[in-house]
Write a structure and sequence with these properties.
The protein is mainly alpha-helical and 270 residues long. 76% of the residues lie in helices and 0% in strands. It contains 14 helices and no strands. Helix 4 runs antiparallel to helix 5, helix 9 packs antiparallel against helix 10 and helix 11 packs antiparallel against helix 12. The longest helix is centred in the C-terminal third of the chain and has 22 residues. The chain is elongated, with a radius of gyration of 21 Å. The C terminus is likely disordered.
Length: 270
Amino acid sequence: MGKQLIRKLLPMLDKMNWPDTPVATAKGQQAFEIGMEKIDNAPNDPQAIAHAIRVFLSGDSLPYALAGVAYALVYASREKNGAFAPEGLEAAMEWLEKAQELEPDLVDINVIEALIYIYSDRFDDARLILDYLQGQEPTNHYLHLAEIQYWYNQRNLEQTVHWFEQAAISAITVPQRLRLSARLGDVYMEFKQPQKAVEAYREAIHFNKDNHLLWYKLAVAYWQQEDYAEAERCVDQVLRIKSDFALGLKLKQALQKKQSSGVLGRLFGK
């Protein structure tokens, strides 16, 4: 990911077959939404990004295809440390501007500009775009997701949670709601609020009971609350689903040590 992936992607884009239709179409919008969904499900997976680009191009709408590629370039720019390669964000803006020239008033497309500014640490510029788009289409789901990113990067937990709630209302599909609940749990963990993280992870698991990673995250949240019995129950679910999951095995060992030391402590009156 990051610089290396951007350097591979950019030459390929010029060789691709682009849609001929220079306006937004229903089919183009559908391809745009499907492609974005693929990236949102696996934003750190180069194969998912490449697949999404092919989906964007499959629609019959050039502006949506151009905007989709811009979105793909944004997430292809993410380095392992979480930073975004400037050259990738610059390339994303170039492709986005081509889409905006064809369709200047589509919120789904213009919200990508705010994301580019957010990941470039240009928060004042991002706020101007977001405020403008709020005046155009305040119930837009992608706008709500961008607001989450804006406030999360500002480290404002209250506003971040507010926009998670708004995004949950505007979400259309179960996978969208699943991602939101799981991401909210991650945010609460970052802000050292494991009790609230438990609630978010449990909601996500309600929609996806066989996701070993969600069970693992829930186990860690219980561990941080020192609720070792619940943590172990969750780890057992992790290993039931994926018996060789290394992080789950490690946590299971740690829980067994905790249990053992607790028994010894009671035996010796400690």
